[in-house]
Amino acid sequence: MPETWITFIDELKDEAGILAKNELKDLILESLKDTEEFIRNQAQKVQRYLNQLALGKITKQQFEGYMVDIADLTRMNALKMEVAAKARAQRLADGIQNFILDRLLKVL
Fold this sequence. Notes:
By secondary structure, the protein is mainly alpha-helical. The chain has one domain. About 75% of the residues lie in helices and about 0% in strands. The protein is built from 5 helices and no strands. The mean pLDDT is about 90.
């Protein structure tokens, strides 16, 4: 059975076609398996907050605030990482901005 956050994303109505559901899920799932502990931790936070949003435990505004914080923190920490990890951290931060803040929140 899929996790709550995956089902939540899959069931969102996206009549305008702005939400790239598969890309968002792939970003999170790949980041959860990253070799860099910081990136895995950030992906776990995204997953946790998506679950809480799906279950109605947090509001859309709270979720947005958490995502902004995670993206900003990831960008700041990317500056301290090795080149390969830096690129993956930047990809996660950009994905949070692109897929969640710019797209997901518009269909909620």
